[in-house]
Amino acid sequence: MTRNSASKFIFSLILTTALIFSAAQSVFGVRGLLANRYLSKEIEALKDQLTVSGNEIGRLESIASQLKSPDYITRVMNRIGYVQEGQSIYIMERTTESNRSSQAVSHTETKNPPKTLSVAQNLLISFILALLINIIIGMFKKMRRRNDHEP
Contact at 8 Å (CB) between 122 and 25? Predict the structure, then answer.
């Protein structure tokens, strides 16, 4: 009889541990609910940052195209005093390519990574909870048997 109850206890302990472990992993694990919520917020922040950066790039490109126009260059040269009215200005194009492609893209690291539990931590917590649950269930069964035997 003791073997049977011990095997039932071990089986229910393993089963309960597995259930609690899978639930804990789905909530507190590295790919769990909390980590995914944090990552979705970070993705939204990065999308907003990308939109702002795209707008800034568009604004700067329009300013750069205005700066390259011959009329603007002539006005600046007249204002500075390098050119007098009626003189000709010769504008030479640069022969080198801009280093736009060689600029490093800054990769933002996660500032506050989500607090997740490792597999070992989740397994240990799950085992302890399962052990407590099984002990409590065993105590209730023992109390129930005592109450059933009392007249």
Answer: yes
- For residue 29, the 8-state DSSP code is S
* pLDDT (tens digit per residue) in 69-101: 778 877 777 778 777 777 777 777 766 655 554
Q: Which residues contact 29 (CB under 8 A, 6 or more apart)?
A: 35, 116, 117, 119, 122
Of residues 71, 92, 94, the one with CA closest to residue 83: 71
pTM of the model as a whole: 0.52
Query: What is the sign, positive or negative, of the torsion defined by CA atoms of 70, 76, 81, 85?
Result: positive
Q: Which residues of 82-109 are buried (b: 16+ CB within 10 A; e: fewer)?
A: ebeeeeeeeeeeeeeeeeeeeeeeeeee
Angle at 28 between CA 24 and CA 30, to 5 degrees: 115
